[in-house]
Specification:
- It is a single chain.
- This protein has 333 residues and is of the alpha/beta class.
- It has helices spanning 12-29, 84-88, 123-129, 166-177, 192-198, 209-217, 231-235, 281-295, 306-332; strands at residues 2-5, 33-36, 60-62, 69-72, 77-78, 91-92, 107-110, 146-151, 184-189, 203-205, 221-223, 242-246, 270-272, 278-280.
- The protein folds into 2 domains: 2-129; 146-295, 3-Layer(aba) Sandwich (Rossmann fold).
Length: 333
């Protein structure tokens, strides 16, 4: 048996990555599949209903984790002065962990588990596993000239390295309008106030979990944030024509070429850089591999002094408020 655990408070996107990757790895290795913490699936700050809009086969319920070996997916972290988090905890830059395919029976897998390598060969099966019930599916916003924008707010808004800037969204909208001059836009978000500050004047939707999920899944055009929630509705979509996502994912705002993480490069996605240019997954993967060779960086812990961390914290706060003021001024003009 190969399994994983739905952890209390974990977001749905991260839970689906753990579930799909572990189930696919179990299939590849010829083992059975099970999950621990099944009662925690889709139970978080956004919804307490559980997984009510899919009939997911969670495999064998695992109630005694003590009977299993634990495998923690390998992590690679860069310690950089991009923000306090990356100085103290390191920036997660890992690619797929090949050793996952060497694990034995009776193993529980934990980790990021977001690399397409883990599930690419089973894409059609994944679509069936994550099939939305008919009574919750909706094509209300499946329109040939409508692009759905998924803005991730919440705790992201206070992190300057993570929260995508207004320019990213405006550049992506411009790129979508190059496909159709009559393109219209609607926001799906977990944070209506933040979305309104970033893109005032656009229609904003924040419904129940199922509504937000299927609106993304059934869109023709998508502009995504660097959040895991929108990945599987986008990846399993049968309607989507174009997907734009931030290049370098969680470090779009500050990266000089590194990915946070390398696991978030996917086939079929177009990745937009800070200049508004688009790159496909193959181009991004090639650049990332060349960056690792060229930079010759050492993965591992780099110690920064408390004074250096304090100064970076002050800089982060100053730049955060400068961004907010600049954003307000732009909206007033």
């Amino acid at each position: 048996m190969i399994g994983t655990e739905f952890i209390k408070g974990q977001g749905l996107g991260n839970q689906l990555f753990s579930y799909v990757s572990a189930r696919c790895i179990a299939r590849d290795l010829g083992y059975g599949f099970g999950t621990a913490g099944q009662e925690q699936l889709a139970v978080n700050i956004h919804s307490k209903k559980g997984m009510y809009f899919m009939d997911m086969d969670l495999g064998v319920p695992i109630t005694d984790k003590g009977q299993y070996q634990i495998y923690q997916e390998k992590e690679d972290r860069l310690y950089l002065k991009t923000c306090v988090h990356d100085m103290t905890h390191g920036c997660y830059v890992a690619d797929a962990d090949e050793d996952l395919y060497n694990i034995g029976d009776q193993t529980l897998i934990y980790g990021n588990l977001q690399a397409e390598k883990y599930f690419r060969a089973h894409k059609e099966a994944v679509k069936e596993w994550l099939k939305v019930k008919k009574e919750y599916d909706s094509y209300q916003y499946t329109k040939d000239n409508l692009c759905i924008i998924n803005i991730r707010g919440g705790e992201y808004t206070g992190n300057r390295a993570l929260f995508l800037r207004r320019k990213y969204w405006l550049d992506a909208m411009k790129n979508m309008r190059s496909i159709r001059a009559d393109m219209e836009f609607m926001i799906v978000t977990d944070d209506v106030k933040a979305a309104g500050r970033i893109l005032p004047g656009l229609a904003v939707s924040h419904g129940e979990l199922a509504q937000d999920y299927v609106t993304i899944k059934n869109a023709r055009y998508l502009i995504l944030s660097n959040s895991s929630f929108a990945f599987f509705p986008a990846y399993t979509s049968e309607t989507v024509v174009k997907i734009i996502a931030p290049k370098y994912w969680a470090r779009h705002n500050v990266s000089d070429g590194y990915w946070a993480s390398g696991q978030n490069i996917y086939e079929g996605f177009s990745y937009q850089d800070r200049q508004g240019r688009l790159f496909n997954g193959e181009e991004c993967r090639r650049e990332w591999e060349n960056y690792k060779k060229r930079a010759n960086f050492t993965l591992g812990e780099k110690k920064y002094t408390q004074q250096e961390v304090k100064r970076q914290g002050q800089k982060d706060r100053a730049l955060y408020w400068a961004d907010k003021v600049a954003g307000r001024l732009k909206r007033m003009l």
